[in-house]
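Quarterly update from the structural biology core.
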Amino acid sequence: MLDPLAALTDAFTGFLFGKVESTRLPVRTSTGQAQAVYLPTAAPGLGDSGVIIGREVYSGKGYIYDPFQLYGQQLPAPHWLVLGESGNGKSALEKTYVLRQLRFRDRQVVVLDAQGEDGVGEWNLIAKALGITPIRLDPMAALNGGIKLNPLDPAIAATGQLALLRTIIEVAMGRALDERSGFALKVAHAYVTETTAERQPILTDIVERLRHPMPDSAEAMNVDVDDVRAWGLDVALVLDRLVDGDLRGMFDGPTTNGIDLDAPLIVFDLSHIDRNSIAMPILMAIVGVWLEHTWIRPDRVKRVFLVEEAWHIINSPFVAQLFQRLLKFGRRLGLSFVAVVHHLSDVVDGAAAKEAAAILKMASTRTIYAQKADEARATGLVLGLPRWAVEIIPTLTPGIAVWDVNGNVQVVKHLITESERPLVFTDSAMTQSSVDHTAQVEAEAVADAAAAAEVSLAKQLADDAVA
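Predicted structure, tokenized:
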């Protein structure tokens, strides 16, 4: 039986406000629209710890990605491939991603900056803002006291030095070394490293020994010393290019003192090198091996190695083989390799198709910006993208990309904060409106979420460190 007081209260309330229970107006929609507004049916995210990228287009949810968090759980490898036509937002994504990674104290980034204007690399603004001096590799500057990197630096193991020398020669020659040339190089390298004291061995020492091999090296193989000299002649001519040719100055002396390998950001500025010359893959091989032996170490620091114009690596069989080893080795030491390429056809149809396929297989994360329809179909076939993703790639607007994280495929709108904008875009890029300004404003709305996510990850990493 209804309590008299309650009945009186209900009657009075109804008299003042009408019916107590409210009625929700009906909504007419389609099943396709309903799955976007009903979030449990939207695609699952990647977690709530890491670096915020932007918004997932169809659900409006924040999109957070961190290969170090996902590795071993949702990712079999922490490496990342970024594809797309120029002017669609690849560069903006790379730069904001690095800036947001560097908010964590246990992060370190190396960038091979192969693009630039006005005499400086594209990453010069960011380096300057962080108080970092880029390592500018320039043959002309190197002749006047500029930066030098020594392939025979004692910090690199003897086996690494020999592998690097072989790669330099094979890239320049466009073919593999034969057994005789390989033997001449090996004995020259062994003699130089064993007999040079009180200074770093340099390439000039190798060239000199190839031209004038020691009799002992010939006797060990029961051959004539003139034969060993003939076997090493082509090798000496190739290395002479680094000593006295168009690449002289950068690699024919001891490594420059003062290169800070403990800085949070290390930028190798390659913008003064002709991107279409043989110098670029040689440079990338030398820098890659030098970093492998001097930078990557078991100190629990999570490292990002970002390479612009990465087709110089993937399109050369010999350089690709070096980087394959680096990627496999780096996974055990917390290295995420980020390769930025304009067109996948630049590499899959090249001379290093086998090596390219192996590197692409290691990249469990793929981000694809707008491409022409034919290129999108070819990309989808190689990467195994779902049909719906392939169909929308040609329609994507700047700042929006298809993200495939080990089979989790979503369309993501990259957001940039106003504080990041001056560092991300150069003046010329600003005038091209390469990214919708609305996206910049919306980014401020997710800044708090980014900070919260990063704090969450930082706390977890701190807890891991204590454990």
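The CA atoms of residues 261 and 295 lie 6 Å apart.
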